[in-house]
# Entry
Amino acid sequence: MLFPVWPLAPFDPAWGVQRRGQWGERAVARKLWREGMRLLEHRWRGPRNTDIDLVAAAEDFLLFAEVKVRNERDADPWADVFRAERLRNLRLAAAAYLHRTHQQEVAVSFRAYLVVPDPLRPRAPRIEVQEDYLNPRTIPGWRGLSQE
# Structure
């Protein structure tokens, strides 16, 4: 296992941005592990200083996961995920990862996870997912098959 996913500490609203992000990534990593996925990378750094929060593998595809921790009051919690510049940089980071790991012909999927802490259940956040929010066919140099 790449980094420990057990136990998940209770969420603390006083944490800074980095600690909140790590907590959310750990929560999503636990979810992926429960779904039978193998965790390959945590905060993999690509070109333009873009990181891929989690890279995981299922039996038939590779998953690039973006994780955001937000609270219930955020007006548009997904806004940062879908910014054009962020999507462009993520495509480049995914291409670099596939190239460096010699996996240009693997099926890939992009998922964005929104982790919302629950004050009544600080170890059990609500996790929402946006499946395939980025088309793998737009990855430079990718020659694989999509999950469609």
Summary: The helical segments are 17-34, 84-100. The domain at 17-138 is CATH 3.40.1350.10 (Trna Endonuclease; Chain: A, domain 1). The mean pLDDT is 89.
